[in-house]
Amino acid sequence: xxxxxxIIANSGxxxxxxxxxxxxxxxxxxxxxxxxxxxxxxxxxxxxxxxxKTLKNEDKEYILLYKPRGVVSTTSDxxxxxxxxxxxxxxxxxxxxxxxxxxxxGLLILTNDGELTNLLTHPKNEITKEYIVKIDxxxxxxxxxxxxxxxxxxxxxxxxxxxxxxxxxxxxxxxxIEIVLHEGKYHEIKRMFASLGYxxxxxxxxxxxxxxxxxxxxxxxxxxxxxxxxxxxxLIK
Length: 237
Ligand code: URA
What we know:
The chain is of the alpha+beta class.
């Protein structure tokens, strides 16, 4: 939380003194509410408007990446493998919110907003993630019940919020499953399926909270809108 006049000045909109003048004149709104008190504080996610113009927070960057397979979700790799950071054209020090495995594709958010990262990765906020799982076998449909009631792995219960079979081809020995989880445990999905005797042959994250991959192909990315960032903050319990 920082004083409003400091946030406005830091954004390059005007000087701090001018910002104070704008606030006392009643031209500044935080999340739609007029503020005139110079002691008012705001946070990175707040939407600040000055005489109807939205202030851009130039310091913070929010990227929605369609991570391809064969890329690590870390900022650097000791084995010299390609990182998600190398796919993004930015001068900011971004890092991913959570991780996807090297061979997992799909939706990954990158940012330099530490506050949002901490909030979204905190287990109490139960942010949902939706995955598509491919298995080169025709699974036993009882698998669905087992995944929804939960499996115990290394003394920890891992459970799907929702799970369904999208396709089951007995002839071609292929199954496609949609699964929604809110935890972010290491290799969670692969371990859940392995504990029931199935190997995951391909894994893709289709959704992160309300965000999806619409309009993007693997390796492409876009910036989140201010509205989307705000909505992510609103998911916090
Ligand atoms: N679960 C996994 O096993 N791998 C991922 O990349 C994400 C979830």
